[in-house]
Design brief:
- The complex is a heterodimer of chains A (110) and B (115).
- In chain A, strands 2, 4, 5, 9, 10 and 11 form a six-stranded mixed β-sheet that branches.
- Chain A is built from no helices and eleven strands.
- Chain A is mainly beta and 110 residues long.
- Chain A is globular, with a radius of gyration of 13 Å.
- The N and C termini of chain A lie far apart (37 Å).
- The radius of gyration of chain B is 14 Å and the shape is globular.
- Helices cover 0% and strands 46% of the residues of chain B.
- The chains are: A mainly beta (110), B mainly beta (115).
- Chains A and B meet through strand 4, strand 5, strand 9 and strand 10 of A and strand 4, strand 5 and strand 8 of B.
Amino acid sequence: RKEVEQDPGPFNVPEGATVAFNCTYSNSASQSFFWYRQDCRKEPKLLMSVYSSGNEDGRFTAQLNRASQYISLLIRDSKLSDSATYLCVVMNTGFQKLVFGTGTRLLVSP
Amino acid sequence: GAGVSQSPSNKVTEKGKDVELRCDPISGHTALYWYRQSLGQGLEFLIYFQGNSAPDKSGLPSDRFSAERTGGSVSTLTIQRTQQEDSAVYLCASSSFRGHDTEAFFGQGTRLTVV
């Protein structure tokens, strides 16, 4: 079983839609969580950290469910520019190693 | 520059040849990762270096792949006897542990084509 699992998609949504991605992780010792974004033919970049209480950054909301070992990313009012691959990342603080999921592809259409 | 630097940016090699890919991480970053990404696919973990600890080599696909990190800084990924299935973008990332604020910074990658 992979340590971080994501639905690869693609998720095809129209502009203005709300879309949510989930990610599950298998290592209960994971303590830090993140979402990264990767544009086509570009390197991944940090989108946002995920805090235990949940956090919001503009149209993006991230949540963590430790009991069920999953994190989520909600994008409201989707823009064409949101089209990208979204990577779920977890870190076991003891090993200080970031583990990347393979990503969920989002396509926002006019 | 202050970012992660990878070289070469593109490499075309003949099947059976050896190649070396280089990564210069951000100064002071103790963690360094190598990934590869085939066209349209997700990141595939290869190897992880953390300070002076033994590297996590669990992602290396075969014994043709090896990596070194000298002096805790520059890293070289070596692929021996390249095969066509080795064609991919090889990404390097570095980070400095900051708990919830840990961030990995990626280089722009080396696009390897084996012909």
